[in-house]
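Retro notes (design track)

What went well: tokenization of the new backbones is finally stable.
What didn't: we kept losing track of which sequence belonged to which structure.
Fix going forward: every design gets posted as structure first, then sequence, in one message. First example under the new rule, 751 residues:
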């Protein structure tokens, strides 16, 4: 009965929220389509970028791969896992490296959108304790999680399941933290900016929906793809209700209730996700079906639509603008320069660090070519340089500059819940500018190679091209930063103004609806026009503040009057050519290479960060990758007692022995020193297709699947949102309801 009630409660809330949202989306879709067609016809481009833009930065490349421990909640064991981060920034966990090399199905696929990376168990426990008010373990009692090393890495999500990892050293922890943060940063930015209609329609619909609930300001959970964002929107309203209803009914010790609550929240999130995806896809399909007719009307009646909108805007402006200007003068204008300065300092330091890292990498490459050799060394270094922007560790010094961003009292005044939105946006700009600089450099150098004679010519050419690219970078980075500052200031001040003006203005907007012709009602909305008028009231002050900062030469910003004309007229034509593959073009390898071998080589060798060879010190037992000459693992004795240590101290001793080089020939699993009491969990309805039954543990001695069976298995894709796991042996299995396998490792699902 409880599960039935839960299912209907979730379905009712999801249907209600999605019904209101889809109405907003349909309205915003027409407006976004009109704006897109108008922009296409009229054009309003800004300064032309000087750097080239790479179309497909990381196709068929691996960002990072390596070993780390994962805590399996279902059987309370710490298990060694081989983690691969492919070009789509998903976290893919394999049983071991051998399973990866054999193309066996992964254990877990994780889309990290919305997650926070924690490096302290205390941080995690604080978040867990606050998630279920009134349930806090007493002092002296075992916490919900213990880590066998001092270097945990925890992926925490307010709604979905949590993932627990640990490593052996602080250096490893920092490296993995940088990798995980890169994954979160990329996955959070899951709404494609290439979509000129669907993306703005979606984000505006989310904003309008939240404003209808009196929720203004930035929203931390606007992250991931559209279905993830909508699931977060539903959970934001649903979870407090469930917490009030279910929380008091949870039984057991505080730790068990916390664990149960996390599992219930995760199960509900899965239900919401499936229902949200179905309803949103249906709404999108309906809009796409109507698009040709709407676009035809827009192109035919463009002038009349623009005239009608301008007439509406003039009436709203006469009513709203006097009030808006007073509000801007009293509550916004005095703080614009303070907000801008707070944004400019860390952002400009980050972009300066990008320039410095790029300069250092190219200069070091040039020096090494002088000392070590010519073209062969150039190819080796260029392969590494071409992926510099996607090297999480080398880029970390740039990203860290944004950690200084503090709005202090301004954050509370303008209802900014968190600065993470601005930090991540600036960091994405940094990565893009780095890749643009690198791509422009390698394109110009590739063009010059045929004309060079000898090592000296090569080094002089590299230096000359570096100076050209840095000039282009300075101009483009200034343009990008000024645009970022303007957008951030608007993102901070506009919601504040709308909230201030709502009591006196919003109720009067309905009377302007009669000014819109019925034929144009799909493309002109009173609410959107009202917001445009409010934006105009503050835009002049924002533009002036950014302009003054540039005139004063603060933070190396170019003045708006400084326009760098295209000094390389043929450069952008070069960027349209075939992508440069330094290894294949200059390595002397035969051109014909089997596709399977090329794919395997791309996975194992062509990676942004080269993984250390050999077995890690703590890679033991059946989880170890067998190297030539290494002993085969013994078959476990069914009647023998468990050999795993049961306490954290014993685990640490075992790890210490491993790090000292002791030979281990038996299976050794890490436990969390927690009672293995069964934990109740909410079920997912049988109709859900996301959760799959987890495969049983594979062993190194297992039979190798046939190539055809391997190829038949589903591989992770950029758009996957649920775990797709096939059992060892390469046979794909149909979706199964959530459950626990014989190995006790349960199901782990990506969203």
């Amino acid at each position: 009965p409880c599960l039935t009630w839960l299912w209907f409660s979730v379905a009712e809330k999801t249907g209600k929220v999605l019904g209101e949202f889809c109405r907003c989306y349909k309205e915003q879709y027409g407006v976004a389509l009109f704006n897109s067609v108008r922009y296409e016809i009229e054009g309003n481009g800004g300064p032309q970028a000087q750097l080239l833009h790479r179309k497909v930065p990381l196709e068929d490349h691996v960002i990072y791969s390596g070993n780390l421990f994962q805590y399996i909640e279902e059987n309370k064991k710490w298990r060694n896992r081989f983690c691969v981060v492919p070009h789509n920034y998903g976290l893919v966990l394999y049983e071991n490296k051998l399973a990866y090399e054999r193309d066996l199905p992964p254990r877990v696929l994780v889309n990290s959108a919305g997650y926070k990376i924690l490096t302290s168990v205390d941080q995690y426990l604080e978040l867990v304790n606050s998630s279920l008010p009134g349930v806090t373990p007493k002092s002296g009692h075992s916490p919900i999680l213990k880590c066998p090393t001092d270097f945990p890495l925890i992926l925490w999500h307010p709604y979905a399941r949590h993932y627990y990892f640990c490593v052996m050293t602080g250096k490893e922890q920092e490296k993995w933290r940088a990798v995980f943060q890169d994954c979160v940063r990329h996955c959070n930015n899951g709404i494609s900016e290439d979509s000129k209609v669907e993306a703005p329609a979606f984000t505006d619909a989310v904003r309008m929906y939240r404003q209808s609930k009196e929720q203004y300001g930035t929203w931390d959970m606007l992250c991931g793809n559209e279905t993830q964002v909508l699931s977060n929107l539903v959970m934001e309203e649903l979870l407090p209700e469930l917490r009030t209803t279910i929380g008091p009914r949870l039984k057991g010790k505080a730790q068990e209730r916390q664990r149960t609550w996390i599992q219930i929240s995760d199960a509900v999130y899965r239900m919401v996700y499936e229902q949200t995806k179905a309803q949103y896809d249906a709404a999108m399909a309906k809009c796409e079906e109507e698009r040709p007719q709407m676009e035809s009307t827009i192109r035919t009646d463009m002038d009349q639509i623009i005239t009608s909108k301008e007439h509406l805007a003039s009436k709203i402006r006469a009513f709203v603008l006097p009030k808006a200007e007073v509000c801007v003068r009293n509550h916004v204008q005095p703080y614009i320069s303070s907000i801008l300065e707070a944004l400019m300092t860390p952002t400009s330091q980050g972009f300066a660090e990008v320039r410095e890292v790029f300069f250092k990498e190219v200069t070091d490459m040039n020096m090494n070519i002088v000392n070590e050799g010519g073209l062969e060394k150039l190819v080796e270094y260029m392969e590494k340089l071409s992926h510099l922007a996607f090297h999480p560790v080398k880029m970390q010094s740039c990203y860290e500059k944004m950690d200084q961003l503090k709005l202090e009292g301004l954050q509370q005044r303008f209802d900014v819940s968190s600065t993470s939105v601005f930090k991540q946006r600036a960091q994405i700009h940094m990565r893009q500018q780095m890749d643009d600089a690198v791509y422009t450099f390698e394109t110009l150098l590739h063009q010059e190679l045929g004309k060079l004679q000898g090592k000296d010519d090569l080094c002089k050419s590299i230096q000359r091209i570096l100076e050209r690219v840095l000039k282009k970078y300075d101009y483009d980075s200034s343009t990008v930063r000024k645009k970022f500052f303007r957008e951030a200031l608007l993102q901070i001040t506009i919601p504040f103004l709308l909230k201030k003006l709502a009591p006196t203005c919003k109720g009067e907007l309905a009377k302007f609806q009669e000014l819109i012709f019925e034929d144009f009602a799909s493309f002109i909305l009173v609410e959107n026009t009202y917001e445009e008028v409010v934006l105009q009231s503050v835009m002049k002050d924002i533009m002036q503040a950014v302009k003054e900062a540039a005139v004063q030469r603060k933070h190396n910003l170019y003045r708006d009057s400084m326009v760098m004309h295209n000094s390389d007229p043929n450069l952008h034509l070069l960027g349209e050519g075939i992508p440069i593959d330094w290894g294949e073009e200059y390595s002397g390898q035969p051109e014909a290479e089997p596709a399977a071998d090329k794919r395997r080589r791309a996975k194992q060798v062509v990676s942004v960060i080269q993984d250390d060879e050999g077995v890690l010190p703590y890679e033991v037992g059946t989880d170890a990758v067998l190297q030539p000459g290494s002993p085969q693992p013994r078959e476990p004795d069914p009647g023998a007692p468990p050999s795993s240590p049961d306490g954290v101290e014993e685990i640490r001793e075992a790890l210490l022995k491993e790090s000292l080089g002791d030979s281990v020939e038996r299976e050794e699993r890490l436990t969390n020193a927690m009672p293995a009491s069964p934990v109740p969990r909410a079920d997912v309805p049988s109709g859900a297709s996301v959760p799959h039954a987890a495969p049983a543990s594979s062993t190194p001695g297992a039979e190798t699947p046939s190539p055809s069976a391997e190829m038949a298995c589903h591989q992770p894709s950029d758009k996957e949102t649920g775990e797709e796991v096939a059992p060892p042996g390469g046979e794909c299995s149909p979706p199964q309801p959530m459950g626990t396998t014989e190995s006790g490792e349960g199901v782990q699902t990506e969203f």
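Added context from the reviewer: The radius of gyration is 28 Å.
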